[in-house]
From TrEMBL:
One GO-annotated biological process of the protein: DNA integration
GO molecular function, one term: nucleic acid binding
Biased composition (Low complexity): 267-291
Ranges in coiled-coil conformation: none
Pfam families: rve, SH3_retrovirus
Segments for region (Disordered): 212-239, 264-291
Integrase catalytic domain span: 413-579
Name of the protein this chain belongs to: Integrase catalytic domain-containing protein
Length: 670
């Protein structure tokens, strides 16, 4: 059996040239690359095109390098010498193939060429078989750049890309630089981006041009169309039989005859002004005035009056000549009437008051005519920087790149309970609570904003707490949690936690690195809890070792308060519509209370109650949580008397400075 090396040697000796069609650029890259792939597949050396030398085992690397060098020399022979100047620095098949592919496979340019060929294809003088062959070839190339896919999202992307290319194909010649810039961009813009970019470009509508006339004068844009011939109605626009567009005829088609010279000629100076439409207040009296444009023809003016085409340019003694197809202004007349000077450049014209040198009008050059605009701001004389914001600049990205602004409000709240649950771990606190807790974790239902808060002694307890929470939700509401959203804390990505999520089909969404705002609901809820807990501790002068009770009480109360996110609805009522908000009347946190002593065997003269500190409510019992500083024990009882106006701690006893009450948690470096 022949070895792979012998097969390669026979192929090299028999067929040293891959294809007779050398690579000359993007226009024949597809056919050239297909020939190269077929040639490499023959001796089974196609892996040299997609594999780097570093990925080859050490024992085979010497033989691989030898064969790859010979194959690369054959690749060099299949490229035009002009192209080889750019590619001969790549001396392995993989680097050569990858570089050529990167240079000549711009998807948007290929799609543009294919779509343009499809739009303009016609049989003309071709025989039928050649015409059908061209159709088949275009179909194959179109499917190469726009492959069929069952993915609806991919279909929408391809559809937008195709219509974006059709938009570029139909642009007028004036926008060729913009089209070339879009086609040459490194990333393919979306259809909406192209629309926005084109709409930003300010250009003037093409005006009819008379090939028999040499004159081109300053034109004023007005809201009325009184200066146009009355014989042409809205539905009777001229039609060109050459380019099939409206607005001009065959003898004035730029595509057929070329563009007119881009030189602006000033109207001949005469005592009578050129034709101009009057304002509504202009006199319509019969005046036998004669206007003479630069082409020597004469036309009779039907009226004379005042025209306010622009607020800053009041024009007097304006002749109304319906036969004139343009609204024209005499340069000599306007300079004398308005005492202004006019400066022409290749792109702009500026009108300035000679007494104040203030700009009173500007115009833009288009098709050999200068068009006055209603905006007299001199800022229009320079390019607008808004059109430069989308220009790709690698140096600007490296030197000026900033973070994307995060939206303040998104209307994407969950539609049902526990469709999305937010979670976050807070802590550690510098001082442990009375029961040794240093952390707490919250679970927030996105639909109702109802919050579950659990105290923890260390982060390792998170998984067991989440298991209990999941079972509780499933049992009490007969609903499974669909999505859990958290930050990138390690405890959320432990092996047991990940396995549990995967086993129960829960999607785990995590925020990007150093982007806590993506878990903003849980972060903001934790802040709300801590701020409320800090406030009630300070108000009652309760020592900060009771921060755990304060946070639990804050969660209990916040769940039973109206929320602006819910349009003033109450979270607890959304989840438990048939339950009362409070099973027991709420009391002032930190006040003095007296708990009835129920211990049997008490002396008849002993006290019947114990003085305690009120610290909140029981989650599973219908009673108040009270703490005895004498016995250092918690009591849950319904037989409690409250002195709500009497804080248990005075300001001079066990109270602490404001800065030490529920301090900011210590952030671990890991």
């Amino acid at each position: 059996m022949a070895t792979k090396t012998s097969i390669f040697s026979s192929v090299i000796s028999r067929s040293p040239m891959i294809t007779s069609e050398k690579l000359v650029g993007s226009e024949n890259y597809l056919s050239w690359s297909a020939s190269v792939e077929l040639w490499f597949m023959g001796p089974r050396y196609e892996d040299h095109l997609v594999t780097q030398e570093a990925d080859i085992p050490e024992v085979d690397r010497v033989q691989w390098r030898k064969i790859d060098a010979q194959l690369c020399s054959v690749l060099w022979q299949s490229v035009d010498p002009k192209i080889l100047l750019h590619l001969r620095a790549y001396k392995t098949c993989f680097k050569f193939w990858t570089q050529a592919k990167g240079l000549y496979t711009n998807d948007i340019q290929r799609l543009y060429k294919v779509a343009s060929a499809i739009v303009h294809i016609s049989q003309q003088d071709l025989d039928l078989s050649t015409y059908i062959g061209q159709i088949a070839s275009l179909k194959e190339e179109f499917l190469t750049v726009m492959p069929l896919t069952p993915d609806v999202g991919a279909q929408q992307t391809q559809l937008d890309k195709f219509f974006m290319v059709l938009t570029l194909i139909g642009l007028c010649p004036d926008l060729e630089p913009v089209r070339d810039q879009i086609l040459g961009s490194s990333s393919v813009p979306s259809l909406d981006d192209v629309f926005v970019r084109l709409l930003r470009i300010s250009f003037t509508q093409t005006l009819p041009f008379d090939s028999t006339s040499d004159s081109s004068v300053l034109v004023s844009q007005t809201n009325s169309r009184g200066g146009r011939s009355g014989t042409r109605g809205r539905g009777q626009r001229p039609h060109c039989t050459y380019c099939n567009k409206l607005g001009h005829t065959h003898d004035r088609c730029y595509q057929l005859h070329g563009r007119p010279p881009r030189t602006a000629y000033v109207a001949q100076s005469s005592d009578s002004p050129l034709p101009q439409p009057p304002s509504s207040s202009a006199s319509q009296a019969s005046v036998a005035s004669v206007a003479q444009p630069t082409n020597g023809s004469q036309t009779v003016a039907n009226g004379i009056g005042l025209a306010l085409s622009l607020p800053s340019l009041p024009l007097t003694s304006v002749l109304y000549t319906p036969e004139c197809p343009f609204n024209l202004i005499s340069i000599s007349k306007i300079t004398r009437t308005l005492n202004c000077s006019i400066t022409f450049s290749d792109k702009f014209v500026t009108l300035q008051d000679r007494s104040t040198w203030k700009t009173i009008g500007i115009g833009r050059e288009s098709q050999g005519l200068y068009h006055l605009t209603s905006d007299s701001s001199p800022a229009k004389m320079v390019p607008r920087f808004s059109t430069l914001s989308s220009l790709p600049c690698e140096s600007c990205q490296l030197g000026k790149h900033t973070r994307i602004s995060f939206p303040k409000h998104l209307n994407n709240r969950a539609k049902s309970p526990f469709e999305l649950v937010h979670t976050d771990v807070w802590g550690p606190c510098r001082t442990a609570s009375t029961l040794g807790f240093q952390y707490f974790v919250t679970f927030i239902d996105d639909y109702s904003q109802c919050t579950w808060l659990f105290l923890m002694k260390n982060r390792a307890e998170l998984f067991s707490i989440f298991q209990k929470f999941y079972v509780e939700i499933q049992t009490q509401f007969n609903i499974s949690i669909r999505v859990l959203r958290s930050d990138n804390a390690r405890e959320y990505f432990s092996a047991p936690f990940t396995s549990f999520m995967s086993h129960h089909g829960i999607l785990h969404q995590s925020s990007c690195a150093h982007t806590p705002q993506q878990n903003g609901v849980a972060k903001r809820k934790n802040r709300h809890m801590v701020e409320t807990a800090r406030t009630i501790l300070l108000h009652s002068n309760v020592p900060f070792r009771f921060w755990g009770d304060a946070v639990l009480t804050a969660c209990y109360l916040i769940n039973r308060m109206p929320s602006s996110v819910l349009h003033d609805q109450i979270p607890h009522s959304l989840l438990f519509p048939n339950q009362p908000l409070y099973f027991l009347p709420p009391r002032v946190f930190g006040c003095t209370c007296f708990v009835h002593i129920l211990t049997p065997g008490q002396d008849k003269l002993s006290a019947k109650a114990m003085k305690c500190l009120f610290l909140g409510y029981s989650r599973l019992q219908k009673g108040y949580r009270c703490y005895s500083l004498e016995t250092h024990r918690y009591f849950i009882s319904v037989d409690v008397t409250f002195f709500e106006d009497s804080p248990f701690f005075s300001t001079t006893s066990e109270s602490l400075p404001v800065s030490e009450v529920l301090p900011i948690p210590i952030v671990s470096p890991t």
